[in-house]
Design a protein that fits this description.
Low-confidence stretches: 182-204
Number of strands: 7
CATH architecture of the largest domain: 3-Layer(aba) Sandwich
Largest sheet: 5 strands, parallel
Order of helices and strands: EHEEHEHHEHHHEEH
Number of domains: 2
Shape: elongated
Strand order of the largest sheet: 3-2-1-4-5
Distance between the termini: 49 Å
């Protein structure tokens, strides 16, 4: 069995490859590709650096890799790649490669946090209170709905990935500070206070 992973240079990728290799031993061959060069030791059987210059080039490269290594299953991690591949599921079926993705209709929804929340709300899934900030001039009005600045509020990008673009607007009570220290990569507290200051100036 041959498996291809995109974003094979991700931080946790090698841990995943190691587990798969251990569990399946010689029954599976792992292949990877990424925009970046692969550095250091890898559990992959092959690695290819690719380009995402445009959708057509990216798709062509992935198709060639699937043909070259007779890929049975393809796993994509990046939102943009998922969107492209989900539009072309039939092409991969024709070369006997199974992509474990939703079709394009649902991919477009789940790559958009606001649309995802609206869909979940529609099917009666319990959700935290949320709203969409369309322009900076309405930020005070929206934040007041959540009880800010007395209460803390989480702000995130509508299309953000990998935890990027997620901020905690620390309220006066500061009770969430310890709980949400995992946000970001480092020095989160400074980012929190800077963001508060910038919001007051309406410059974000």
């Amino acid at each position: 069995m041959n498996i291809l992973f995109t974003c094979a240079c991700g931080k946790k990728s090698e841990q995943l490859f190691k587990v798969i290799k251990k569990d399946f031993k010689k029954k599976v061959k792992l292949h990877g590709c990424d925009l970046r060069k692969k550095k250091g030791k890898t559990y992959l059987d092959s690695f290819n650096q690719i380009s995402n210059q445009n959708e057509k080039i990216f798709l062509s490269q992935i198709m060639k890799l699937c043909n070259k290594y007779e890929i049975d299953f393809l796993f994509a991690w990046a939102d943009k790649e998922i969107e492209i591949l989900s539009k072309n599921l039939k092409k991969f079926e024709n070369i006997k490669t199974k992509i474990l993705l939703n079709n394009y209709k649902y991919t477009k929804i789940f790559n958009d946090k606001f649309k995802t929340y609206n869909l979940l709300k529609k099917i009666k899934i319990e959700l935290p209170k949320y709203d969409l900030l369309k322009n900076i001039s309405s930020i005070d009005k929206i934040l007041s709905k959540f009880g800010y600045p007395e209460n803390s509020v989480i702000v995130k990008s509508r299309y953000g990935i990998g935890g990027r673009g997620v901020y905690l607007l620390l309220g006066n009570q500061k009770k969430e500070l310890k709980k949400f220290k995992w946000f970001g990569n480092f020095d989160r507290e400074k980012k929190i206070y800077l963001l508060n200051s910038r919001i007051k100036k309406k410059n974000i």
